[in-house]
Write a structure and sequence with these properties.
By secondary structure, the chain is of the alpha/beta class. It contains 19 helices and 9 strands. Strands 1, 2, 3, 4, 5, 6, 7, 8 and 9 form a 9-stranded mixed beta sheet that branches. Helix 1 runs parallel beside helix 3. The chain is globular and about 70 Å long. About 5% of the residues have low confidence.
Length: about 450
C-alpha cells in the first residue's frame, strides 16, 4: 500500500515549499495556449514523475500500460521514487516534467496559486470532461480558489478498527457509533498493571497518536475549518469546542501522564509492532491501508471495521475525512497535450482507477470505480469504500501555505490536552493565530 496521506506539513515546511515553487514559476497557463480541438492521434514521449517505489511502482506501471495500449503512438517515461520535495525542486529549476503525481493535498494551494501546475480548466471545458464522477469532497481538495490545477489519483479515508477478541472478552457486542459509546467502551477495554500503569488500552484519546488528528476527527462533529473569506471558524464553532471538551474529559478519565507513558512504549505506526496489530490498543481510528498492513504483518488478527463514531446529534455517522494523491501538468511541460491525455486517463478512467486501487489498496477517487464489480472489496475494506462514497464525507480547504492551519490546530490541541485552561480564550487566540498566518501566506 502507498504511504498513507497523513499529517499536514508544518507551517515552516509549507512556507519553504511555497517560496521554492513561486520562485520558479509565474502565473498558470491561459486558455490561449490550449488548442481548440484535441489532437486525433497522440504521438511522442511524455514523462510521469511519481513517488511510488518497489512493488507499488509496478502497480502504477500497470496502469500506465493501459494508457500506452490505448495510445500506441505514445511512450510514457516514468520517473519513480520522486517525492514532493524532488518534484518541487525539479519544476522550480525548469526540468522537463510533464505530469507530476504528489502524495499530498497540501501542495494544491501553492501549486495552483503559483502556476507550478497548469490550470486544467481549458482542457476540461474543451474536451467536455464530466467531473461529476469525482466525489464532491475530492473535487474540493483538488482545486484552489476556483483554479483547478490538479485531478485526484486515489485517496485515503479513515474509520474505526476494533479488536473482536477484546470486544468479546469485555462483553461488547457491537462497535460504538457515538462518542459516548466510544468512551464507555474504551474505558471498559482498558486494563491496568498492579502498579496502576496501563496494560491494555481500549482507545487512545491523545491527539497525534497515530492517526488521531483534527482532520480525521472532524467527521465526529461534521467540523468546519474556514469561512468563505478564508478566516478560521474553529474557535467560534460550538461543535469543535464540544469535541475538544469531550476528548479532554476522556484523557483526564485515564490520566494524561499514564497515557503518555503507555504511548511512549508502543511500536511505530507503520511497523509490524503497531499497537493495534499487537493488541495493546483495542480500537483506533485508521486508514484503509491498515487492512493491507494487517494482511501482510498480522494475518491472524481477528478485527472489524466500522465508520468513525460521532457526537450524537452533531456528527453524521457513515461519513469520513478524505484526502489523497493529486496530479497535475507541470508549467514547463513540453508535451502538454500528451500530459493532459495521460493525466485524464489516470484520474478519470474507471479501469485505471480500479487497477491502481486493487494494487495499492488505497481508495479510488471515482464513484464509478468505487462501485465497480472489478474492485477487490473484502469486508473490512468495504467500510472504507462505503464512507468514501458518502456524499457528505469531509475534506479540508486548501490555503496558499499548504493548509498549515491544521498543524497550528494540532499543536493547540496537544497543549490543551496536557495543560487545560480557559478553552474559550484559547480558541479565540487560535483563530487569530490561523488568520494572521493565512494573511502572511498571501493569496
Amino acid at each position: 500500500m502507498s504511504l498513507p496521506i497523513r499529517r499536514i506539513l508544518t507551517a515552516t515546511a509549507v512556507a519553504a515549499t511555497g517560496a521554492l515553487v513561486i520562485a520558479g514559476c509565474s502565473s498558470g497557463s491561459s486558455a490561449d495556449s490550449v488548442a481548440d480541438k484535441a489532437p486525433k492521434d497522440l504521438k511522442g514521449t511524455v514523462s510521469l514523475w511519481h513517488f511510488f517505489t518497489g512493488r507499488e511502482a509496478g502497480v502504477v506501471k500497470s496502469a500506465v500500460a493501459g494508457f500506452e495500449k490505448a495510445n500506441p503512438g505514445v511512450t510514457v517515461d516514468i520517473h519513480a521514487g520522486q517525492d514532493d520535495e524532488k518534484l518541487q525542486k525539479a519544476i522550480s529549476s525548469g526540468q522537463n516534467i510533464d505530469v507530476g503525481l504528489s502524495y499530498s493535498t497540501a501542495i494544491v494551494g501553492s501549486f495552483c496559486s503559483s502556476g507550478a501546475f497548469r490550470d486544467l480548466s481549458p482542457y476540461i471545458k474543451r474536451d467536455k470532461v464530466d467531473l461529476s464522477d469525482i466525489p464532491k469532497a475530492v473535487r474540493g481538495y483538488t482545486a484552489y480558489k476556483g483554479t483547478r490545477c490538479t485531478l485526484p489519483a486515489l485517496a485515503d479515508v479513515s474509520a474505526l478498527m476494533y479488536n473482536k477478541k477484546a470486544f468479546s472478552a469485555a462483553g461488547i457486542t457491537a462497535p460504538p457509533k457515538t462518542l459516548d459509546e466510544l468512551k464507555a467502551d474504551g474505558l471498559k477495554l482498558t486494563t491496568y498493571n498492579a502498579d496502576g500503569s496501563i496494560k491494555q488500552l481500549g482507545f487512545n484519546p491523545l491527539i497525534d497518536f497515530y492517526e488521531n488528528s483534527p482532520e480525521h476527527w472532524a467527521p465526529m462533529i461534521n467540523g468546519s475549518w474556514l469561512d468563505s473569506k478564508g478566516n478560521s471558524v474553529i474557535g467560534t464553532s460550538p461543535e469543535w469546542k464540544q469535541l475538544i471538551t469531550w476528548q479532554k474529559g476522556f484523557v483526564d478519565a485515564i490520566g494524561y501522564d499514564k497515557l503518555k507513558a503507555f504511548t511512549s512504549g508502543l511500536g511505530q505506526e507503520f511497523a509490524a509492532d503497531n499497537a493495534f496489530q499487537t493488541g495493546q490498543v483495542a480500537m483506533q481510528i485508521d486508514g484503509e491501508y491498515r487492512s493491507a498492513f494487517i494482511k501482510d504483518q498480522k494475518p491472524g488478527l481477528d478485527y472489524g471495521t466500522a465508520p468513525t463514531p460521532v457526537m450524537a446529534g452533531v456528527g453524521k455517522y457513515g461519513t469520513t475525512y478524505i484526502a489523497g494523491n493529486v496530479a497535475g501538468i507541470a508549467k514547463g511541460s513540453k508535451q502538454p497535450e500528451l500530459a493532459w491525455a495521460l493525466l485524464k486517463y489516470l484520474s478519470m478512467n474507471t479501469d485505471a482507477q480500479v487497477t491502481m486501487g486493487n494494487g495499492l489498496k488505497n481508495i479510488p477517487t471515482l464513484t464509478s470505480a468505487l462501485q465497480s464489480s472489478k474492485l477487490d472489496v473484502e469486508p473490512n475494506y468495504k467500510t472504507f469504500v462505503d464512507v468514501a462514497g458518502n456524499p457528505e464525507t469531509l475534506t479540508s480547504p486548501a490555503t496558499a501555505d499548504g493548509a498549515a492551519y491544521i498543524g497550528t490546530f494540532t499543536k493547540f490541541w496537544q497543549a490543551y490536552q496536557e495543560n487545560g485552561g480557559d478553552l474559550s480564550a484559547k480558541l479565540k487566540k487560535l483563530d487569530s493565530d490561523i488568520d494572521n498566518a493565512n494573511q502572511l501566506a498571501g493569496p
